[in-house]
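Quick review question:
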Protein backbone atom coordinates (compact mmCIF):
# COMPACT_ATOMS: atom_id res chain seq x y z
CA UNK A 1 0.00 0.00 0.00
CA UNK A 2 1.30 3.45 -0.89
CA UNK A 3 2.21 5.56 2.12
CA UNK A 4 0.66 9.00 2.68
CA UNK A 5 3.22 11.76 1.99
CA UNK A 6 4.75 12.86 5.28
CA UNK A 7 4.06 16.38 6.54
CA UNK A 8 7.06 18.28 7.84
CA UNK A 9 6.30 20.02 11.14
CA UNK A 10 8.33 22.41 13.26
CA UNK A 11 7.71 24.68 16.24
CA UNK A 12 8.82 28.29 16.65
CA UNK A 13 9.62 29.85 20.01
CA UNK A 14 10.52 33.52 20.19
CA UNK A 15 11.19 36.32 22.64
CA UNK A 16 11.51 34.24 25.79
CA UNK A 17 13.41 37.11 27.51
CA UNK A 18 14.74 34.85 30.26
CA UNK A 19 16.86 36.42 32.99
CA UNK A 20 18.59 34.55 35.78
CA UNK A 21 18.09 37.44 38.20
CA UNK A 22 14.48 38.39 37.39
CA UNK A 23 11.38 36.24 37.55
CA UNK A 24 9.17 38.42 35.37
CA UNK A 25 9.49 39.94 31.94
CA UNK A 26 6.78 42.56 32.19
CA UNK A 27 3.87 40.61 33.68
CA UNK A 28 4.98 37.12 32.67
CA UNK A 29 7.07 34.56 34.53
CA UNK A 30 9.28 33.92 31.52
CA UNK A 31 11.14 30.87 32.85
CA UNK A 32 7.85 29.17 33.85
CA UNK A 33 6.41 29.94 30.39
CA UNK A 34 9.44 28.43 28.65
CA UNK A 35 9.39 25.32 30.83
CA UNK A 36 5.69 24.73 30.08
CA UNK A 37 6.09 25.41 26.37
CA UNK A 38 8.95 22.90 26.09
CA UNK A 39 6.63 20.34 27.69
CA UNK A 40 3.90 21.14 25.13
CA UNK A 41 6.04 20.56 22.03
CA UNK A 42 4.75 17.43 20.29
CA UNK A 43 7.22 14.58 20.66
CA UNK A 44 7.15 13.74 16.97
CA UNK A 45 7.93 17.23 15.70
CA UNK A 46 10.88 17.56 13.31
CA UNK A 47 12.62 20.49 14.96
CA UNK A 48 12.25 23.63 17.04
CA UNK A 49 13.59 27.05 16.10
CA UNK A 50 13.99 30.00 18.49
CA UNK A 51 13.87 33.28 16.61
CA UNK A 52 15.72 35.45 19.07
CA UNK A 53 15.60 37.49 22.27
CA UNK A 54 16.40 34.33 24.22
CA UNK A 55 17.21 36.59 27.15
CA UNK A 56 16.74 40.25 28.07
CA UNK A 57 19.52 42.82 28.10
CA UNK A 58 22.10 43.13 29.44
CA UNK A 59 23.32 39.88 27.88
CA UNK A 60 25.10 37.82 30.53
CA UNK A 61 26.32 34.21 30.84
CA UNK A 62 24.03 33.48 33.80
CA UNK A 63 20.85 34.25 31.81
CA UNK A 64 22.00 32.17 28.84
CA UNK A 65 22.78 29.30 31.22
CA UNK A 66 19.26 29.58 32.70
CA UNK A 67 17.78 29.51 29.19
CA UNK A 68 19.98 26.57 28.12
CA UNK A 69 18.95 24.50 31.17
CA UNK A 70 15.27 24.88 30.22
CA UNK A 71 15.52 24.35 26.46
CA UNK A 72 17.63 21.20 27.03
CA UNK A 73 14.37 19.30 27.73
CA UNK A 74 13.10 19.88 24.16
CA UNK A 75 12.21 16.57 22.46
CA UNK A 76 13.84 17.49 19.13
CA UNK A 77 16.81 19.36 17.62
CA UNK A 78 16.75 23.11 18.39
CA UNK A 79 18.04 25.88 16.09
CA UNK A 80 18.59 29.47 17.16
CA UNK A 81 19.00 32.91 15.66
CA UNK A 82 19.80 35.96 17.82
CA UNK A 83 17.55 38.95 18.50
CA UNK A 84 18.37 42.53 19.40
CA UNK A 85 18.57 41.58 23.11
CA UNK A 86 21.11 38.84 22.37
CA UNK A 87 24.88 38.81 22.14
CA UNK A 88 25.52 36.21 19.39
CA UNK A 89 29.03 35.36 20.66
CA UNK A 90 27.94 34.86 24.28
CA UNK A 91 24.85 33.00 23.12
CA UNK A 92 26.98 30.55 21.10
CA UNK A 93 29.30 30.02 24.06
CA UNK A 94 26.53 29.19 26.51
CA UNK A 95 23.67 27.66 24.53
CA UNK A 96 24.60 24.24 23.07
CA UNK A 97 24.07 23.94 19.33
CA UNK A 98 24.04 27.69 18.57
CA UNK A 99 25.87 28.70 15.41
CA UNK A 100 28.54 31.35 15.16
CA UNK A 101 28.18 31.85 11.41
CA UNK A 102 25.09 33.25 9.74
CA UNK A 103 23.10 32.55 7.73
CA UNK A 104 22.91 28.92 8.71
CA UNK A 105 20.93 26.56 6.53
CA UNK A 106 19.88 22.93 6.43
CA UNK A 107 17.82 20.72 4.17
CA UNK A 108 15.05 18.57 5.63
CA UNK A 109 12.50 16.47 3.71
CA UNK A 110 13.03 18.55 0.59
CA UNK A 111 12.77 22.00 2.21
CA UNK A 112 15.72 24.32 2.87
CA UNK A 113 15.55 26.25 6.16
CA UNK A 114 17.68 29.38 6.56
CA UNK A 115 18.36 31.50 9.66
CA UNK A 116 19.92 34.97 9.59
CA UNK A 117 21.41 37.23 12.28
CA UNK A 118 19.66 40.61 12.57
CA UNK A 119 20.78 41.30 16.14
CA UNK A 120 22.25 44.69 15.16
CA UNK A 121 18.93 45.78 13.63
CA UNK A 122 19.92 44.91 10.08
CA UNK A 123 21.26 42.01 8.02
CA UNK A 124 24.79 42.84 6.93
CA UNK A 125 25.90 42.80 3.30
CA UNK A 126 27.85 39.54 3.60
CA UNK A 127 24.76 37.74 4.86
CA UNK A 128 22.59 39.25 2.12
CA UNK A 129 25.06 37.91 -0.46
CA UNK A 130 25.10 34.43 1.12
CA UNK A 131 21.33 34.54 1.22
CA UNK A 132 21.20 35.40 -2.46
CA UNK A 133 23.23 32.25 -3.21
CA UNK A 134 21.26 30.01 -0.84
CA UNK A 135 17.97 31.14 -2.35
CA UNK A 136 19.14 29.91 -5.76
CA UNK A 137 18.87 26.34 -4.46
CA UNK A 138 16.46 24.03 -6.18
CA UNK A 139 14.42 23.39 -3.04
CA UNK A 140 11.57 25.43 -1.55
CA UNK A 141 12.90 27.62 1.27
CA UNK A 142 11.74 28.95 4.64
CA UNK A 143 13.55 31.94 6.08
CA UNK A 144 13.89 32.86 9.79
CA UNK A 145 14.78 36.38 10.94
CA UNK A 146 14.24 38.05 14.32
CA UNK A 147 13.00 41.47 13.20
CA UNK A 148 9.77 42.30 11.42
CA UNK A 149 9.92 43.57 7.87
CA UNK A 150 6.35 44.76 7.20
CA UNK A 151 5.06 48.15 8.31
CA UNK A 152 2.01 48.11 10.60
CA UNK A 153 -0.40 50.99 10.10
CA UNK A 154 0.03 53.68 12.79
CA UNK A 155 1.99 51.39 15.11
CA UNK A 156 4.81 52.42 17.46
CA UNK A 157 6.48 49.12 16.48
CA UNK A 158 7.42 50.47 13.03
CA UNK A 159 10.45 52.27 14.48
CA UNK A 160 11.93 48.89 15.53
CA UNK A 161 11.59 47.12 12.18
CA UNK A 162 14.50 45.62 10.26
CA UNK A 163 16.51 48.56 8.93
CA UNK A 164 17.28 46.99 5.55
CA UNK A 165 14.02 45.14 4.99
CA UNK A 166 14.16 46.31 1.37
CA UNK A 167 17.43 44.43 0.77
CA UNK A 168 15.97 41.26 2.28
CA UNK A 169 12.79 41.53 0.20
CA UNK A 170 14.94 42.18 -2.87
CA UNK A 171 16.82 38.87 -2.60
CA UNK A 172 13.62 37.01 -1.74
CA UNK A 173 11.84 38.39 -4.79
CA UNK A 174 14.83 37.63 -7.03
CA UNK A 175 15.10 34.06 -5.69
CA UNK A 176 15.30 31.29 -8.23
CA UNK A 177 13.17 29.10 -6.01
CA UNK A 178 9.94 29.19 -4.08
CA UNK A 179 10.10 30.92 -0.68
CA UNK A 180 7.28 29.40 1.37
CA UNK A 181 7.49 32.04 4.05
CA UNK A 182 9.51 34.45 6.15
CA UNK A 183 9.05 33.80 9.87
CA UNK A 184 9.94 36.28 12.59
CA UNK A 185 9.37 37.30 16.21
CA UNK A 186 10.38 40.64 17.83
CA UNK A 187 6.97 42.34 17.78
CA UNK A 188 5.58 40.02 20.48
CA UNK A 189 2.37 39.78 18.50
CA UNK A 190 0.77 37.21 16.22
CA UNK A 191 0.18 38.43 12.68
CA UNK A 192 0.45 37.37 9.06
CA UNK A 193 1.59 39.79 6.37
CA UNK A 194 2.29 39.65 2.64
CA UNK A 195 4.55 42.66 2.20
CA UNK A 196 7.55 40.78 0.77
CA UNK A 197 5.67 39.07 -2.04
CA UNK A 198 5.61 35.90 0.06
CA UNK A 199 3.72 35.02 3.27
CA UNK A 200 5.29 36.62 6.35
CA UNK A 201 4.44 35.15 9.76
CA UNK A 202 4.95 36.80 13.15
CA UNK A 203 4.69 34.59 16.20
CA UNK A 204 3.45 35.66 19.63
CA UNK A 205 6.15 36.01 22.28
CA UNK A 206 6.78 33.24 24.75
CA UNK A 207 6.59 36.04 27.33
CA UNK A 208 4.55 39.29 27.34
CA UNK A 209 2.56 40.30 24.24
CA UNK A 210 2.81 43.83 22.86
CA UNK A 211 -0.18 45.91 21.80
CA UNK A 212 0.97 47.28 18.42
CA UNK A 213 -1.74 49.93 18.38
CA UNK A 214 -1.70 50.99 22.02
CA UNK A 215 0.65 53.37 23.83
CA UNK A 216 4.44 53.04 23.37
CA UNK A 217 5.60 49.63 24.73
CA UNK A 218 2.05 48.75 25.84
CA UNK A 219 1.38 45.07 26.56
CA UNK A 220 -1.83 43.05 26.55
CA UNK A 221 -3.15 40.36 28.87
CA UNK A 222 -2.82 37.66 26.20
CA UNK A 223 -0.89 34.62 27.42
CA UNK A 224 2.56 33.54 26.22
CA UNK A 225 2.40 31.37 23.12
CA UNK A 226 4.38 29.62 20.43
CA UNK A 227 3.61 28.59 16.85
CA UNK A 228 3.58 25.16 15.24
CA UNK A 229 4.11 25.12 11.47
CA UNK A 230 3.29 22.43 8.95
CA UNK A 231 4.63 22.32 5.40
CA UNK A 232 1.98 20.84 3.13
CA UNK A 233 2.92 17.41 1.70
CA UNK A 234 3.24 18.92 -1.80
CA UNK A 235 5.77 21.47 -0.35
CA UNK A 236 3.68 24.36 -1.66
CA UNK A 237 2.34 25.93 1.51
CA UNK A 238 3.16 26.76 5.11
CA UNK A 239 0.38 26.56 7.72
CA UNK A 240 0.59 28.08 11.21
CA UNK A 241 -1.16 27.09 14.44
CA UNK A 242 -0.65 28.97 17.71
CA UNK A 243 -0.40 27.17 21.07
CA UNK A 244 -1.15 29.30 24.12
CA UNK A 245 0.66 28.68 27.40
CA UNK A 246 -2.21 29.84 29.59
CA UNK A 247 -1.01 29.10 33.09
CA UNK A 248 2.19 31.07 32.82
CA UNK A 249 0.54 34.46 32.52
CA UNK A 250 0.83 36.20 35.84
CA UNK A 251 -0.72 39.29 37.23
CA UNK A 252 1.17 41.46 39.63
CA UNK A 253 4.53 41.05 37.92
CA UNK A 254 6.64 43.91 36.65
FE1 LIG B 1 11.57 40.56 22.25
FE1 LIG C 1 13.46 41.86 19.66
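Suggested answer, residue by residue:
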Amino acid sequence: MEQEPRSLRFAQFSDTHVRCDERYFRNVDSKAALKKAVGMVPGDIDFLVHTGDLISRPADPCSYDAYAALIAAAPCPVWHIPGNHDDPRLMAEHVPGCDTEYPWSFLLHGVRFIGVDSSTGNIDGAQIERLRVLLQSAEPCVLFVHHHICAMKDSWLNQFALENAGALCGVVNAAGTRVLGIIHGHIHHQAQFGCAGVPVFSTPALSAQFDPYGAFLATTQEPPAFTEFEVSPDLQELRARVHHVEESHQTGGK
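Why it works: The two ends are 58 Å apart (CA to CA). Residues 15, 17, 53, 83, 186, 188 surround fe (ii) ion (ligand 1) (CB under 6 Å).
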